[in-house]
Amino acid sequence: MLKPTAPTPDHAGEPPLNPPPGPSQLFAAFAKAGLMGFGGAQVWVRRALVEERRWMTERDYAEVLGLGQVLPGPNVGNAAVMIGRRFAGLPGSFAATGGLYLFPLVVLMALVLLWQEFADDPHVAAFMHGLACAAAGMVIGNGLRMTGRLRPPPELIAIGLASTLAAAWLRVPLPLIVLVLGPVSVAAVVWRGRRGARA
Amino acid sequence: MSAVVWDLFLFFLKLSLVAVGGANAAVPSMHHEVVELRGWMTDASFSQGYALASAAPGPNVLFVAVIGWHVAGWQGMAASLIGFLGPTFVLAWAVAMLTQRLAGDARMAALRAGLVPVAVGLILATGLVTGAAAARGTGTEVAVAVVITFASAIFVWRSRFSPIWTLLAGGLLGLVLLGQ
């Protein structure tokens, strides 16, 4: 019925992939991403899996994250379960999930217990304010970086921008955005695939 | 296990499967239930807990652990985390099984590819919303905040260096320029 949508290989312009990881490698990669994950662990998971360790292509990761986004729960948590399963089954899912949450949980509980000590320190507040600005920029830059490497056709760029505007500016509830723009986007992918097949 | 621990577990279990968009999307429901209906936390400690969870590394979903800990100590923390993450783990596992089974199916391929622009668009939106929230203070501070956010976005977009450098630089700039 449908022809493949991508005319070039998945990893065009990217170095070749490394062999799939086992549970302990998954745990280590997600633990690092979780611990570094200021302002969005997703940024660090992508960096670890796609750019540093080369276990997944940019497109592959983006697709898993897309599924993780439409499922309930944190998108990066869902991605950890799905990526862990693919590489190492149930132990892989537990290893990736455990790595993602364990150390940040320890740090967070330490902060909760110690917070009163330095909650009123203006230096801490100023540092955290600057960090929050940089983290927001990091999330934006990461989105732009993914887009650049995925090289989407114009209609998909338009759908992506529409999602951004709907969520950030119009404050449309997220399930509604997914329910309306998701099918439009899938239709656009199918349309592009058919057009490519005829050409 | 005390009644309140069980209550926490059930509350987060119910919230889990409607929390499309993660913990951030569910924060208004949590506030309604935890602060307004049950009085488990005050408004101030709820806000402070949320700020801590956002500032700390790792997924923001760990905010549910802070709520659980406030309400019922370590048991409450475990109950709220397991309640909130358990169902999503099972669902993501089942969906992963389905997608792997249908790996060669063109409809599944179209679905997966079609969700990508929406997901990336929503990631950009998250960055814009948190960036706008961080652009606060006096006129100068707002300008500094916007410059840090903008410069960090360009750095992460165009360079291969680790974003840890832009986070560190942002924090230090904040310390010098936002600390009045």
UniProtKB/TrEMBL annotation, chain B:
Q: Where is the signal peptide?
A: 1-25
InterPro entries on file: CHR_Transporter, Chromate_transpt
Task: Give yes or no: UniProt keyword Disulfide bond.
Answer: no
How does the record say this protein sits in the membrane? Multi-pass membrane protein
Q: Which PANTHER family match?
A: CHROMATE TRANSPORT PROTEIN-RELATED, CHROMATE TRANSPORTER
Q: Which family does it belong to?
A: Belongs to the chromate ion transporter (CHR) (TC 2.A.51) family.
Q: List the protein's name.
A: Chromate transporter
Record organism: Muricoccus vinaceus
